[in-house]
Amino acid sequence: MDIRIRTATTEDAEELLEIYTYYIKNTAVTFEYEVPSPEEFQERIRHILEHYPYLVAESDGEIIGYSYAGRFHPRAAFAWDVEMTVYLKHEIRRTGVGRKLYTLMEKILQKQGIINTISLITKPIDAYSDYNSVQFHEKMGYTYAGELKNCGYKFNKWYTLIYMDKQIGRIQENMLPIHDFDEVRKSFGL
User: What is the CATH architecture of 4-177?
Assistant: First the structure.
């Protein structure tokens, strides 16, 4: 499969939302109940791109997946930590597209000065939650960092969130400020 990765735009909102809608309606991978409007999804894209990368993967001109990073927590001391997200068309999972998105995402985040990437994963307990996210993140070098038990209720069932993290940057005593995505994106041809 020939894959092209580029920066998302607000014009991609409907195609990205189509991918995400499957996970809202059919899985506990996201705890969102209602499908957002295209306008709300455009605003989400715009908000992420103010500081962080939002990438789409295309094959033959069709968007087949996307990934983005967002601030893990608003407190100042968490500035060097991001939460990672990736969604693929459900029929193309396990084809290497997620790995390509995450690999480029991590390189961009390193250039921005990010130290830690964090992923929140629904603990696999049933068909709604078993989407191999834990195995994917382990292969990407993430390690188990803890869990929030029974914190999400969907499909008349309680789900636990697993925290997995990966240190991608070098910690030091006097940390430099984080660069915005726009400051580094050209060095990646984005």
Answer: 3-Layer(aba) Sandwich (3.40)
